[in-house]
Amino acid sequence: MTPTQSVWNQIDDAFRLWSSGGAREARARLEALQSAGWRHAYIDLGLAYTARDLQDWEAAVAAADAVLAAQPANAAALLIKADGQRVRGRHAEAVALYATALKLPRLAEAAPVLVRDLDRAAVIVRDHAAAMARAVEARLTSAGILPEAPPRFLQSLSILRGERRVYAQRPLQYYYPGLAAIEFFDPASFPWVADLESAADAIRDEALAVLADRSRLKPYVEKDHGPQVAEVDIAGSSRWTAFFIYKSGELIEENAAMCPQTLAALSRVPLTGASGAMPSVLFSVLEPGAHIPPHHGMTNTRLIGHLPIVAPPGCSLRVGSETREWRYGKTLIFDDSIEHEAWNRGTETRVVLLFDVWRPELDAAERRAVSEYLAVQSSSEGLS
């Protein structure tokens, strides 16, 4: 039977009694309501809480299961069942239940007991992950696999230990499925990198000649354009500026004429192409003390390349969970659809040649299709 208002009052009284330390009497009242034929998940939850306090784990788990049969996403019941399985030595199942509860949305008005249980569960899950990582590392070390192991495997251990977050691709405009979320790519896997880096001195000389007249620089993010950032408004900022050679797929003829060596070096690079959208090729200038807040790029079908040509100490780039410093003439290639941010904590201006290239996984047909789509998206031609 569905509880009447009178029965709800009795249930609330039982919960108040339990919360003040009267678990045994509260349990007796709730059991009496069940014996009278009243049924509701809230009654079962009260029985789960009181049985847990009385260390009656069989009853606690049974009551939690009754709640979960009606409300599979009830975090409180998941946590009580997890506690019961943990006490009974079923550690793997307990940790899985704790983890499931932690993934549920946490309500702002959650009861204090639930908040405490969730915080405790987070510690248990974290400690279990760390212990598992230590056990794995010990075994792998004894097997001769560690410390020299593939980088991605080492990253997986960092995630297991809770030292590294998993960041998803969240492009602002266009998501292409099936592309791995890799923060930084190995430059050695791109055959054009060596030639580009060999031209670093020539590119630097052109950049310094351009930057001698700072009036040529424009804000990297114009008002009402550019990446959306979470912390501060950087639109129109003079702290992050650019000298564009290509902008949104269009060659800036006057600027390009000043950078023939740069364009020659990029001629062997698989730049993206979509009318009105990409590529962008520019000298990106970050002033001392500047911070580019966390943001995401336009699409995951491209990668961003940085060739540092003025790289003073104290300048770094975070992509996802990994942070790297710029080093002169050493290319960084990253997926800007993953959250990223940058700093210049030094005392000198940082300059990189910034460009975007196709994801190597995309074949010619895919690149053409993506290019045409982005061209239409960037204009109103397809919106008749």
Word description of this protein:
- By secondary structure, the chain is α+β, with helices and mostly antiparallel strands.
- It folds into two domains: 5-125, Serine Threonine Protein Phosphatase 5, Tetratricopeptide repeat, CATH 1.25.40.10; 184-377, Sandwich (Jelly Rolls).
- It is built from 13 helices and twelve strands.
- Strands 1, 2, 3, 4, 5, 7, 10 and 12 form an eight-stranded antiparallel β-sheet that branches. The protein has a four-stranded antiparallel β-sheet with strand order 6-11-8-9, with no helix packed on it.
- The chain is elongated and about 90 Å long.
What's this entry about, in short?
This protein has 2 domains: 121 residues, Tetratricopeptide repeat domain (Serine Threonine Protein Phosphatase 5, Tetratricopeptide repeat), CATH 1.25.40; 194 residues, B-lactam Antibiotic, Isopenicillin N Synthase, Chain (Jelly Rolls).
CATH class of the largest domain: Mainly Beta
CATH H-level name of the largest domain... which superfamily?
B-lactam Antibiotic, Isopenicillin N Synthase, Chain
Rg of Cα set: 29 Å
Q: Give the topology string: H per helix, E per strand.
A: HHHHHHHHEHHEEEHHEEEEEEEEH
Give the fraction of residues assigned to helices: 40-55%
Largest sheet descriptor: 8 strands, antiparallel
Number of strands: 12
